[in-house]
């Protein structure tokens, strides 16, 4: 997840219900869930993983300076 840049809903952008995209290392992956709730769960879980990875990297950087 450290290479993940963006995760967001794209239903109107690509005209597909319950769709979202994940941008990783210059590539864009489009996905489609089976329901609105499932789409939101995926976006939430991926977003949390991105934040967690970012915090872990920041903590490692701080430890290097101590």
TrEMBL record:
InterPro entries: PH-like_dom_sf, PH_domain. It comes from the Eukaryota. It holds the Pfam family PH. Residues 1-51 form the PH domain. This is PH domain-containing protein.
């Amino acid at each position: 997840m450290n290479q993940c840049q963006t995760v967001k809903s794209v239903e109107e952008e690509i005209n597909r219900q319950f769709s979202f995209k994940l941008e990783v290392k210059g590539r864009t992956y489009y996905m489609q869930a089976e329901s609105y709730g499932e789409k939101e769960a995926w976006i939430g879980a991926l977003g949390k993983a991105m934040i967690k990875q970012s915090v872990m990297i920041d903590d490692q950087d701080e430890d290097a300076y101590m």
